[in-house]
């Protein structure tokens, strides 16, 4: 057992830490679901309702599923995820779900949402590069893609996933009366016109900026043959010889 623990990588230790953090949070959130009020009390400051805790529990469960996805996908399709990319993914997951939602950094830390959207744009750009490069290096794929096409795909991949996230926020704001898209103030006053669109458009803009910056750097690195781009490359898993 001790030998197995010593063999764990930094990324695996981070994943275990996040898993434990989420698990403990889910226990306390479940307790709060039974204690929280169902409806807002008239004339009282805005309270955290049962539906809020249910959504919080849903996000934690979703976070655990997402945490396990890279391992499941890499084993299923027999490729290795670079340690650097996996660590960036874990940091984003922890910062967005645990710190952002559970610890309420989105409402207490200025610009936390925009920082994460910028970071995610760059991270998704890196994953887009890695995915296409994996196909590019596959002996079964006849067509070889040039750095320009790789860059365009990585950019579109990152921005598309950013758009899907905004659809997710819009959907659950409507279903559960949430305020992820910041269309109302903290006291419940609804925003009107451009003010109501500011958060969503700001998220999309920083998504584009983050992904564009990484893609341009990645394009330059591929054209110049810079070796550090190999840190972002997915690799086919080579079967062990018996």
From TrEMBL:
The keyword Magnesium does not apply. The keyword Repeat does not apply. The chain crosses the membrane at residues 12-33, 53-72, 84-103, 115-136, 148-168, 204-222. InterPro entries: YjdF-like. It comes from the Bacteria. Keywords: Membrane, Transmembrane, Transmembrane helix. Pfam families: DUF2238. This is DUF2238 domain-containing protein. It comes from Listeria booriae. The lineage of its organism: Bacteria, Bacillati, Bacillota, Bacilli, Bacillales.
